[in-house]
Amino acid sequence: MGEQEDRAAVRQRTVDVYDFRRPTTLPRQHSRVLEVAFETFARQWGTQLTAKVRLKSTATLEQLSMQSYDEYSASLPSVTSMVLCRIDGSESRLVIQFPATAALSWLSRMLGGSTDTAVPERKFTQIEHALLSRMVEEVLEDLRYSLGNLLTQTVAMDGIQYNSQFAQAAAPSELMIVASFSVNVGENQCAATLAVPADVLLSRLGDVNPTVHSVDNEALVRAQLAQVPVDVAVQLTPAPVTPAQILGLAVGDVLHLPHLENRPFDVTINGTRLATAAAARHGSRAAAVIVTTEEHQR
Questions:
Q1: I need a labelling partner for 290 at 20 to 30 A (CA). Which of 103, 165, 223, 265 fits?
Q2: Sign of CA dihedral 37, 38, 39, 42
Q3: In angstroms, rounded to a whole number, what is the distance separating the alpha carbons of residues 108 and 123?
Q4: Would you state the pLDDT for residue 241?
Q5: Which domains are seen in the chain, by residue range?
Q6: Which element (helix H / strand E) includes 126?
Q7: Coil, strand, or helix at residue 93?
Q8: Do 192 and 96 touch, CB atoms closer than 8 A?
Q9: What is the pLDDT of residues 46-100, one digit of tens each?
Q10: Of 67, 68, 79, 65, which Cα lies nearest the Cα of 165?
């Protein structure tokens, strides 16, 4: 029976078609930059909701992916709230999606309500639309702050759609950066998404997270090492002594050194002699004048 179930499971597996000419997977370095930005946005959004509804609220980034707009819209409930926002220089729209029931609960709290009553999915009234527009404006400000140089264009609310299948935010095949959030307001939890046209963000990722061609690595390492500070010592020739002599040192004792009186001092770095120098003065401080240098293999 177990083998039959395994065979049935194998037959039921589905294969997703992947177009290698249009990769839909974010590079790791780009994904990490975007994750940090959207996690910052989530914290900002949670703080804003807490101030608005006077109830502890949090937003948590659950997933970050890149998918076509057709795939994104198909993953949403057929009836939901989709706030479409226009982006300067782009024909596609940025989308902020959340359940209308959750938004109505937030608005009820903003107007002084103390309890959450179950309400069906419906369109917003004129007053509710105005209040929600103000809230969305602040959400967009948090988004621009969180994305920083990734989103320099002006973003403004364009309208609200209530059917995910009819909302034409972008061409069906256009790639979108989709961030999924879990929003908790008090004891209520809902899922929300934010979709940004991929072209808007990916075109700026190279500037935010620049990469350098590998052929320059050696020159970059040399340039960096040349700026690392090191300690230089000007010293006499060291003399070997025993631990007993060290432990028996007292004020007034004389240590006999093999360094000749007329011989220059040694200039060393980490015990390696690089040059010799004579004692000098620089203002009120001691100095050393280089007399000779030594060649070392690099």
A1: 223
A2: positive
A3: 15
A4: 87
A5: 17-208 (3.40.1550.10), 227-249+256-293 (2.30.330.10)
A6: helix 126-147
A7: strand
A8: yes
A9: 999 999 888 899 999 999 999 999 999 999 998 999 999 999 989 999 999 999 9
A10: 79
